[in-house]
Structure to design on (306 residues):
Protein backbone atom coordinates (compact mmCIF):
# COMPACT_ATOMS: atom_id res chain seq x y z
CA UNK A 1 0.00 0.00 0.00
CA UNK A 2 2.76 2.39 -0.76
CA UNK A 3 3.15 4.79 -3.61
CA UNK A 4 6.01 4.08 -6.00
CA UNK A 5 7.50 7.48 -5.07
CA UNK A 6 7.78 6.31 -1.45
CA UNK A 7 9.67 3.15 -2.34
CA UNK A 8 11.92 4.51 -5.06
CA UNK A 9 11.85 8.29 -4.53
CA UNK A 10 13.23 10.28 -7.45
CA UNK A 11 14.11 7.12 -9.37
CA UNK A 12 13.90 6.50 -13.10
CA UNK A 13 11.20 3.93 -12.35
CA UNK A 14 9.03 6.46 -10.51
CA UNK A 15 9.50 8.94 -13.36
CA UNK A 16 8.57 6.21 -15.87
CA UNK A 17 5.32 5.42 -14.01
CA UNK A 18 4.41 9.07 -13.60
CA UNK A 19 4.97 9.81 -17.27
CA UNK A 20 2.61 7.00 -18.31
CA UNK A 21 0.02 8.13 -15.74
CA UNK A 22 0.14 11.66 -17.05
CA UNK A 23 0.23 10.99 -20.75
CA UNK A 24 -1.81 7.77 -20.85
CA UNK A 25 0.23 5.82 -23.35
CA UNK A 26 2.28 2.67 -23.63
CA UNK A 27 5.98 2.95 -23.10
CA UNK A 28 9.09 0.78 -23.21
CA UNK A 29 12.41 1.81 -21.71
CA UNK A 30 15.63 0.54 -20.14
CA UNK A 31 15.74 1.69 -16.56
CA UNK A 32 18.57 1.79 -14.07
CA UNK A 33 17.55 1.21 -10.49
CA UNK A 34 19.88 1.79 -7.59
CA UNK A 35 18.71 -0.06 -4.52
CA UNK A 36 21.20 -0.62 -1.70
CA UNK A 37 24.06 -2.78 -2.92
CA UNK A 38 22.10 -4.09 -5.88
CA UNK A 39 22.27 -2.00 -9.01
CA UNK A 40 19.64 -3.30 -11.39
CA UNK A 41 19.11 -2.79 -15.09
CA UNK A 42 15.47 -3.34 -15.97
CA UNK A 43 13.66 -3.56 -19.27
CA UNK A 44 10.36 -1.83 -18.41
CA UNK A 45 7.11 -2.12 -20.37
CA UNK A 46 4.32 0.08 -19.04
CA UNK A 47 0.80 0.89 -20.10
CA UNK A 48 -1.88 3.16 -18.65
CA UNK A 49 -4.95 1.43 -17.20
CA UNK A 50 -8.14 3.25 -17.98
CA UNK A 51 -11.51 2.85 -16.25
CA UNK A 52 -14.82 2.35 -18.19
CA UNK A 53 -15.29 6.10 -18.33
CA UNK A 54 -11.82 6.61 -19.77
CA UNK A 55 -10.40 7.93 -16.51
CA UNK A 56 -6.91 7.02 -15.43
CA UNK A 57 -7.00 4.27 -12.78
CA UNK A 58 -3.40 3.19 -12.74
CA UNK A 59 -0.40 1.86 -14.61
CA UNK A 60 0.57 -1.71 -15.36
CA UNK A 61 4.33 -2.21 -15.44
CA UNK A 62 6.20 -5.38 -16.41
CA UNK A 63 9.88 -5.45 -15.48
CA UNK A 64 12.53 -7.80 -16.83
CA UNK A 65 15.83 -7.95 -14.97
CA UNK A 66 18.49 -7.54 -17.70
CA UNK A 67 21.39 -6.83 -15.30
CA UNK A 68 23.32 -9.95 -16.37
CA UNK A 69 22.91 -9.12 -20.05
CA UNK A 70 24.09 -5.56 -19.41
CA UNK A 71 27.15 -6.82 -17.56
CA UNK A 72 27.98 -9.19 -20.43
CA UNK A 73 27.60 -6.30 -22.85
CA UNK A 74 29.99 -4.22 -20.72
CA UNK A 75 32.49 -7.07 -20.69
CA UNK A 76 32.27 -7.40 -24.45
CA UNK A 77 32.86 -3.66 -24.88
CA UNK A 78 35.81 -3.74 -22.49
CA UNK A 79 37.23 -6.71 -24.34
CA UNK A 80 37.01 -5.02 -27.74
CA UNK A 81 38.60 -1.87 -26.27
CA UNK A 82 41.41 -3.93 -24.71
CA UNK A 83 42.12 -5.87 -27.90
CA UNK A 84 42.20 -2.66 -29.93
CA UNK A 85 44.58 -1.06 -27.45
CA UNK A 86 46.88 -4.09 -27.36
CA UNK A 87 47.02 -4.27 -31.15
CA UNK A 88 47.41 -0.56 -31.72
CA UNK A 89 50.64 -0.32 -29.73
CA UNK A 90 52.71 -2.64 -31.96
CA UNK A 91 51.08 -1.33 -35.14
CA UNK A 92 51.98 2.26 -34.23
CA UNK A 93 55.56 1.20 -33.57
CA UNK A 94 55.83 -0.75 -36.83
CA UNK A 95 54.44 2.16 -38.84
CA UNK A 96 56.74 4.62 -37.09
CA UNK A 97 59.88 2.64 -37.85
CA UNK A 98 58.87 2.00 -41.47
CA UNK A 99 58.47 5.77 -41.93
CA UNK A 100 61.86 6.35 -40.33
CA UNK A 101 63.40 3.89 -42.78
CA UNK A 102 61.65 5.57 -45.73
CA UNK A 103 62.81 8.97 -44.54
CA UNK A 104 66.46 8.05 -44.97
CA UNK A 105 67.45 5.56 -42.29
CA UNK A 106 67.69 2.89 -45.02
CA UNK A 107 70.96 4.45 -46.15
CA UNK A 108 72.48 3.90 -42.69
CA UNK A 109 72.77 0.09 -42.61
CA UNK A 110 73.54 -0.02 -38.89
CA UNK A 111 70.39 1.95 -37.94
CA UNK A 112 68.31 0.15 -40.57
CA UNK A 113 69.26 -3.22 -39.10
CA UNK A 114 68.25 -2.09 -35.60
CA UNK A 115 64.91 -0.70 -36.81
CA UNK A 116 64.15 -3.90 -38.74
CA UNK A 117 64.84 -5.87 -35.58
CA UNK A 118 62.37 -3.68 -33.66
CA UNK A 119 59.77 -4.11 -36.42
CA UNK A 120 60.28 -7.88 -36.24
CA UNK A 121 59.78 -7.86 -32.46
CA UNK A 122 56.50 -5.95 -32.72
CA UNK A 123 55.31 -8.25 -35.52
CA UNK A 124 56.04 -11.23 -33.27
CA UNK A 125 54.01 -9.54 -30.59
CA UNK A 126 51.02 -9.07 -32.91
CA UNK A 127 51.32 -12.72 -33.89
CA UNK A 128 51.38 -13.82 -30.26
CA UNK A 129 48.26 -11.77 -29.46
CA UNK A 130 46.34 -13.18 -32.44
CA UNK A 131 47.48 -16.74 -31.66
CA UNK A 132 46.34 -16.43 -28.04
CA UNK A 133 43.00 -14.87 -29.03
CA UNK A 134 42.37 -17.71 -31.49
CA UNK A 135 43.31 -20.34 -28.89
CA UNK A 136 40.98 -18.72 -26.38
CA UNK A 137 38.05 -18.59 -28.77
CA UNK A 138 38.63 -22.18 -29.99
CA UNK A 139 38.69 -23.53 -26.42
CA UNK A 140 35.57 -21.51 -25.56
CA UNK A 141 33.67 -22.70 -28.63
CA UNK A 142 34.72 -26.33 -28.25
CA UNK A 143 33.73 -26.24 -24.60
CA UNK A 144 30.28 -24.86 -25.46
CA UNK A 145 29.74 -27.54 -28.11
CA UNK A 146 31.03 -30.32 -25.82
CA UNK A 147 33.77 -30.98 -28.33
CA UNK A 148 36.58 -31.29 -25.79
CA UNK A 149 37.15 -34.99 -25.28
CA UNK A 150 38.48 -36.14 -21.93
CA UNK A 151 40.13 -39.52 -21.31
CA UNK A 152 40.88 -41.16 -18.02
CA UNK A 153 44.63 -41.41 -18.53
CA UNK A 154 47.98 -40.74 -16.83
CA UNK A 155 48.94 -37.09 -16.66
CA UNK A 156 52.67 -37.85 -16.57
CA UNK A 157 53.21 -37.59 -20.33
CA UNK A 158 51.45 -34.22 -20.67
CA UNK A 159 53.52 -32.78 -17.82
CA UNK A 160 56.74 -34.13 -19.30
CA UNK A 161 55.86 -32.63 -22.70
CA UNK A 162 55.24 -29.26 -21.02
CA UNK A 163 58.65 -29.41 -19.36
CA UNK A 164 60.26 -30.21 -22.71
CA UNK A 165 58.42 -27.38 -24.48
CA UNK A 166 59.66 -24.87 -21.91
CA UNK A 167 63.18 -26.22 -21.42
CA UNK A 168 64.83 -23.92 -23.97
CA UNK A 169 63.40 -20.79 -22.33
CA UNK A 170 64.45 -22.10 -18.93
CA UNK A 171 67.97 -22.78 -20.13
CA UNK A 172 68.28 -19.23 -21.48
CA UNK A 173 67.82 -18.01 -17.91
CA UNK A 174 69.74 -20.85 -16.33
CA UNK A 175 66.59 -21.92 -14.49
CA UNK A 176 66.29 -25.50 -13.22
CA UNK A 177 62.98 -27.22 -14.09
CA UNK A 178 62.21 -30.07 -11.71
CA UNK A 179 59.26 -32.46 -12.03
CA UNK A 180 57.69 -34.81 -9.47
CA UNK A 181 54.82 -36.93 -10.75
CA UNK A 182 53.84 -40.54 -10.23
CA UNK A 183 53.67 -42.26 -13.64
CA UNK A 184 50.36 -43.91 -12.66
CA UNK A 185 48.58 -40.75 -11.49
CA UNK A 186 45.45 -40.58 -13.63
CA UNK A 187 42.73 -37.99 -14.26
CA UNK A 188 40.08 -37.20 -16.87
CA UNK A 189 42.18 -35.15 -19.28
CA UNK A 190 42.59 -33.90 -22.79
CA UNK A 191 46.35 -34.49 -23.03
CA UNK A 192 47.30 -31.74 -25.48
CA UNK A 193 45.15 -29.07 -23.81
CA UNK A 194 46.49 -29.95 -20.36
CA UNK A 195 50.00 -29.73 -21.81
CA UNK A 196 49.24 -26.25 -23.13
CA UNK A 197 47.80 -25.07 -19.78
CA UNK A 198 50.78 -26.36 -17.80
CA UNK A 199 53.22 -24.92 -20.37
CA UNK A 200 51.58 -21.49 -19.99
CA UNK A 201 52.07 -21.66 -16.22
CA UNK A 202 55.72 -22.75 -16.56
CA UNK A 203 56.46 -20.03 -19.14
CA UNK A 204 55.03 -17.43 -16.77
CA UNK A 205 57.10 -18.87 -13.92
CA UNK A 206 60.21 -18.52 -16.10
CA UNK A 207 59.30 -14.99 -17.21
CA UNK A 208 58.73 -13.70 -13.70
CA UNK A 209 61.70 -15.48 -12.06
CA UNK A 210 65.28 -14.31 -11.95
CA UNK A 211 68.33 -15.96 -13.48
CA UNK A 212 69.44 -19.21 -11.88
CA UNK A 213 66.33 -19.90 -9.79
CA UNK A 214 64.31 -23.12 -9.61
CA UNK A 215 60.81 -24.06 -10.82
CA UNK A 216 59.08 -27.20 -9.58
CA UNK A 217 56.21 -28.94 -11.36
CA UNK A 218 54.58 -31.43 -9.02
CA UNK A 219 51.41 -33.49 -9.17
CA UNK A 220 49.67 -35.41 -6.43
CA UNK A 221 46.35 -36.83 -5.46
CA UNK A 222 44.56 -35.23 -2.53
CA UNK A 223 40.91 -36.02 -3.19
CA UNK A 224 41.28 -33.91 -6.33
CA UNK A 225 44.32 -34.29 -8.55
CA UNK A 226 46.55 -31.28 -7.90
CA UNK A 227 49.15 -30.04 -10.38
CA UNK A 228 51.33 -27.29 -8.92
CA UNK A 229 53.82 -24.96 -10.59
CA UNK A 230 56.01 -23.50 -7.88
CA UNK A 231 58.46 -20.68 -8.60
CA UNK A 232 60.87 -18.58 -6.56
CA UNK A 233 60.15 -15.47 -8.62
CA UNK A 234 58.97 -11.92 -8.11
CA UNK A 235 55.63 -12.89 -6.54
CA UNK A 236 52.34 -11.04 -7.01
CA UNK A 237 50.77 -8.48 -4.65
CA UNK A 238 47.62 -9.71 -2.94
CA UNK A 239 45.34 -7.06 -4.51
CA UNK A 240 46.00 -8.45 -8.01
CA UNK A 241 45.18 -12.09 -7.24
CA UNK A 242 41.37 -11.98 -7.65
CA UNK A 243 41.63 -10.53 -11.19
CA UNK A 244 44.72 -12.34 -12.44
CA UNK A 245 42.87 -14.80 -14.66
CA UNK A 246 40.94 -12.09 -16.53
CA UNK A 247 41.81 -11.41 -20.15
CA UNK A 248 44.57 -8.79 -20.51
CA UNK A 249 44.90 -8.30 -16.75
CA UNK A 250 48.52 -7.81 -15.73
CA UNK A 251 49.93 -7.16 -12.29
CA UNK A 252 53.15 -5.78 -13.73
CA UNK A 253 52.28 -4.18 -17.07
CA UNK A 254 55.75 -3.00 -18.06
CA UNK A 255 57.45 -6.28 -17.23
CA UNK A 256 54.80 -8.36 -19.01
CA UNK A 257 55.17 -6.31 -22.21
CA UNK A 258 58.98 -6.36 -22.24
CA UNK A 259 58.87 -10.13 -21.70
CA UNK A 260 56.57 -10.47 -24.73
CA UNK A 261 53.52 -11.37 -22.61
CA UNK A 262 50.09 -11.00 -24.18
CA UNK A 263 48.10 -10.87 -20.93
CA UNK A 264 46.05 -13.84 -22.18
CA UNK A 265 48.09 -16.79 -20.91
CA UNK A 266 46.23 -17.25 -17.62
CA UNK A 267 42.81 -16.70 -19.24
CA UNK A 268 43.66 -19.60 -21.57
CA UNK A 269 44.71 -21.75 -18.59
CA UNK A 270 41.44 -20.95 -16.81
CA UNK A 271 39.31 -21.90 -19.82
CA UNK A 272 41.19 -25.12 -20.49
CA UNK A 273 40.88 -26.23 -16.88
CA UNK A 274 37.18 -25.29 -16.76
CA UNK A 275 36.73 -27.56 -19.78
CA UNK A 276 38.23 -30.27 -17.52
CA UNK A 277 35.55 -29.44 -14.87
CA UNK A 278 38.38 -28.17 -12.66
CA UNK A 279 39.69 -24.84 -11.43
CA UNK A 280 42.97 -22.93 -11.06
CA UNK A 281 44.14 -21.14 -7.94
CA UNK A 282 47.14 -19.05 -6.99
CA UNK A 283 49.05 -18.28 -3.81
CA UNK A 284 51.87 -15.81 -3.85
CA UNK A 285 54.28 -13.90 -1.65
CA UNK A 286 56.05 -10.81 -2.94
CA UNK A 287 59.76 -11.52 -3.26
CA UNK A 288 59.39 -15.21 -2.39
CA UNK A 289 57.47 -16.65 -5.34
CA UNK A 290 54.15 -18.03 -6.52
CA UNK A 291 52.32 -21.35 -6.60
CA UNK A 292 49.75 -21.86 -9.34
CA UNK A 293 47.61 -24.97 -8.73
CA UNK A 294 45.41 -26.79 -11.21
CA UNK A 295 42.68 -28.77 -9.43
CA UNK A 296 41.28 -31.63 -11.52
CA UNK A 297 38.34 -33.54 -10.07
CA UNK A 298 38.86 -37.21 -9.25
CA UNK A 299 37.29 -39.30 -12.06
CA UNK A 300 34.42 -40.65 -9.91
CA UNK A 301 33.16 -37.11 -9.10
CA UNK A 302 32.93 -36.23 -12.82
CA UNK A 303 30.88 -39.36 -13.51
CA UNK A 304 28.51 -38.38 -10.72
CA UNK A 305 28.17 -34.86 -12.16
CA UNK A 306 27.36 -36.04 -15.68
P1 LIG B 1 51.26 -12.34 -19.53
O1 LIG B 1 51.28 -12.66 -20.97
O2 LIG B 1 51.30 -10.86 -19.25
O3 LIG B 1 52.24 -13.12 -18.73
P2 LIG B 1 49.23 -13.93 -18.20
O4 LIG B 1 47.76 -13.98 -18.38
O5 LIG B 1 49.99 -15.18 -18.46
O6 LIG B 1 49.75 -12.73 -19.07
O7 LIG B 1 49.52 -13.44 -16.72
C1 LIG B 1 48.83 -12.31 -16.21
C2 LIG B 1 49.71 -11.53 -15.25
O8 LIG B 1 49.89 -12.32 -14.07
C3 LIG B 1 51.11 -11.27 -15.76
O9 LIG B 1 51.14 -10.10 -16.52
C4 LIG B 1 51.90 -11.13 -14.47
O10 LIG B 1 51.75 -9.81 -14.00
C5 LIG B 1 51.18 -12.07 -13.51
N1 LIG B 1 51.85 -13.40 -13.37
C6 LIG B 1 51.48 -14.55 -13.97
N2 LIG B 1 52.26 -15.58 -13.57
C7 LIG B 1 53.15 -15.07 -12.71
C8 LIG B 1 54.23 -15.62 -11.91
N3 LIG B 1 54.55 -16.93 -11.96
N4 LIG B 1 54.91 -14.77 -11.10
C9 LIG B 1 54.60 -13.46 -11.04
N5 LIG B 1 53.59 -12.87 -11.75
C10 LIG B 1 52.88 -13.66 -12.57
Amino acid sequence: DKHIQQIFPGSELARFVEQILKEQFTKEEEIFLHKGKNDLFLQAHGTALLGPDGSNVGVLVVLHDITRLKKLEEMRKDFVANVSHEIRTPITAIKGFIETLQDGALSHPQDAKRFLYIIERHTDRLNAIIDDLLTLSTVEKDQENNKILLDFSPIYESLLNSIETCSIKAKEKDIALVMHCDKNLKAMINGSLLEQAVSNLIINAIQYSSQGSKITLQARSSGDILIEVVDQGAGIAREHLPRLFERFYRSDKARSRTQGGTGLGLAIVKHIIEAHHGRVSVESTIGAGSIFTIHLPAANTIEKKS
In short: DSSP finds nine helices and ten strands in the chain.
